[in-house]
Automatic annotation (TrEMBL):
The keyword Cell inner membrane does not apply. Its cofactor is [2Fe-2S] cluster. Binds 1 [2Fe-2S] cluster per subunit. Belongs to the PyrK family. It comes from the Bacteria. It comes from Thiospirochaeta perfilievii. It holds the Pfam family DHODB_Fe-S_bind. Keywords: 2Fe-2S, Electron transport, FAD, Flavoprotein, Iron, Iron-sulfur, Metal-binding, Transport. This is Dihydroorotate dehydrogenase electron transfer subunit. Residues 1-96 form the FAD-binding FR-type domain. GO terms for biological process: pyrimidine nucleotide biosynthetic process.
Length: 251
């Protein structure tokens, strides 16, 4: 982990309310798939905000974020060559699956799953990436390795399967559950559904949790979740954000 002043390369709207921010990343610490960073625009009196890496290569990094409040509205106004204060990489990453990688992305979880798909492809794997959204307007064009098979599920059927990801996997996409391991990031309800699916079909399942964070480094205990560990509560920022889904007490 290191703190660095980074320069904005681009900050573009890529789908309904979703932006991709690309910045210089000369940090000697290469992020692993599933890790995150915290950002504070220079000169702004905002708290740092956590975002998962969506890309990394040749001295640049990227995140995908949703414009939903004051902080992300501020981020959406960043221009090329603006300076942002970044702390990272932070947190635990996904473990390399031993079987076929079935990647499931929902909402803002798309960014880290794109990064994970591309990293696994670099290691010679052929992951399957299933993207779920309300409608096609919330799904951007994505840049993934040709080895990655991309499938879509939308609530209204405007792109791909009509329904959510787990409905797809228990119907038309059931074949993809064979000899697979689930890696997922997205809303809590989706992650819980992925966990239940993994229990039903006896699959390993890693989930990247989304929680409100204050410090991002494990000091404030503001992002704890209840787990099956003896200590009971774990910090998403320090002990996660990636957990085996069987370690989480799902409510």
């Amino acid at each position: 982990m290191i703190q660095e002043k980074c320069r904005v390369i681009s900050n573009n709207l890529i789908a309904k309310d979703y932006f991709e921010l690309v910045f210089t990343w000369t940090n000697s610490f290469k992020p692993n798939a599933g890790q995150f960073l915290t950002i504070k625009p220079e000169g702004k009196s905002l708290l740092r905000r956590p975002f998962a890496f969506s890309s990394y290569s040749n001295g640049t990094g990227g995140i995908i974020y949703k414009k939903i409040g004051a902080a992300t509205t501020n981020f959406s106004e960043l221009k090329q060559d603006d300076i942002i204060d970044i702390l990272g990489p932070l947190g635990k990453s996904f473990e390399k699956p031993k079987n076929r990688a079935l990647l499931i992305a929902g909402g803002i979880g798309l960014g880290p799953m794109i990064f994970t798909a591309n990293e696994l492809a670099k290691e010679g794997l052929k992951p399957i990436l299933i993207i779920g959204a309300r409608d096609k307007g919330f799904i951007p064009e994505i840049d993934v390795d040709p080895c990655v098979k991309v499938l879509y599920c939308t609530d209204d059927g405007s792109l791909g399967f009509k329904g959510n990801v787990t409905q797809y996997l228990e119907s038309e996409g059931k074949k993809y559950l064979e000899n697979s391991e689930i890696l997922a990031c997205g809303p809590h309800v989706m992650l819980k559904a992925c966990h239940n699916l993994s229990l039903k079909y006896n699959l390993q399942c890693q989930v990247s949790l989304e929680e409100m964070m204050a410090c991002g480094i494990g000091a404030c205990y503001g992002c704890v979740v209840e787990t099956t560990f003896e200590e009971k509560y774990k910090r998403v920022c320090k002990d996660g954000p990636v957990f085996n889904s069987r370690e989480i007490i799902w409510t």
